[in-house]
Write a structure and sequence with these properties.
10 helices; binds S-adenosylmethionine
Length: 281
């Protein structure tokens, strides 16, 4: 089982890779990016993913949003700026919460945003505190996806919306070889297990959510997935050398190796990427 400390260590150690390869300081995104006709660059795809989810959630200025697993605050800042809403962002990493607070100040939305270190499976927020719970590539880290969903249900107001974008298991059964490929990706990105799609849907329904909708957007994230794959291949020899010289850590090089295997998982149809939308009754 991957611990919370391992998740924090992964993000704090690999921040440099996201900075160098994923425009972290400009785009503030730790997600994969959504490609369509309107996107030509990675930076555009990273923003587009926020736009697509914002549209799906019909987020407006009167909403109070929880960005559950907020990274360095990119989506929270995007939503505060573009939709005019109030956003609380939570993450396990103190470093990320500090960065997010700094970025929000720089972007002029510090009064609309608040970043805290908190576990999204046990938040401490009062019942019915939020209009929207937003989880962009963060629910995958929950040891129990059911617990995450139940907590989201509890803190949503009646009629509130949950929007999740993430990777999922897409097959009923896996051969030992397929399981190995899967694990060579997810464990290196500090994820214990992705949820099978039908199980995630069942948790939503069991919690009481209605109007549950899933949209497969694997094809929209594949260009970014391919880019990560290519990056891993090209930079691997240098990264190994840097590790031997003590300039890169094992966690950082595992992150790079994970970037290789995530593409194989998509290409072998072992996993899929999609967005869930659901409303509290
Ligand atoms: C892949 S990053 C995504 C960050 C952000 N949503 C984005 O799109 O840039 C995953 C985030 O989930 C957070 N996370 C993982 N488990 C969590 C938990 N139990 N409670 C709160 N945040 C968590 C991590 O700290 C990290 O910020």
């Amino acid at each position: 089982m991957i611990s919370r400390k391992q998740i924090v260590d992964y993000y704090d150690s690999c921040e440099i890779d996201y900075r160098m390869n994923w425009h972290l300081d400009e785009c503030l995104a730790l997600h994969i990016g959504y490609w369509d006709k309107s996107t030509k660059t990675l930076a555009q795809a990273l923003v587009r993913q926020n736009e697509i989810m914002g549209e799906k959630g019909r987020i407006t200025a009167s909403d109070r949003v929880l960005d559950a697993g907020c990274g360095v605050g990119g989506s929270s800042i995007f939503l505060a700026k573009s939709r005019g809403c109030q956003v609380v962002g939570i993450t396990l990493s103190h470093k990320q919460a500090r960065s997010a607070t700094g970025f929000a100040r720089k972007k002029g939305v510090h009064e609309q945003t608040d970043f805290q270190v908190m576990d999204y499976t046990n938040t401490g927020f009062a019942d019915e505190s939020f209009d929207v719970v937003w989880a962009l590539e963060s629910s995958c880290y929950a040891a129990s996806k059911k617990t995450f969903i139940n907590e989201a249900y509890r803190i949503l107001k009646k009629g509130g919306r949950l929007i999740v974008a993430d990777g999922f298991e897409s097959k009923d059964t896996y051969s030992p070889f397929e399981r190995k490929i899967f694990d060579l990706w997810i464990k290196r990105w500090a994820v214990d297990a992705l949820e099978p799609l039908p199980k995630f849907r069942q948790h939503l329904s069991d919690a009481g959510f209605i109007k549950i909708n899933y949209e497969d957007i694997t094809k929209n994230v594949t260009p970014s997935s391919r880019r990560l794959f290519a990056l891993a291949i090209v930079t691997w020899p240098l990264a190994k050398m840097a590790q031997a010289l003590g300039k890169r850590s094992k966690i950082q090089n595992d992150n790079l190796a994970g970037a290789f295997f995530q593409y194989l998982v998509l290409k072998l149809n072992l996993g899929s990427y999609g967005m869930f939308y659901a409303e509290k009754k």
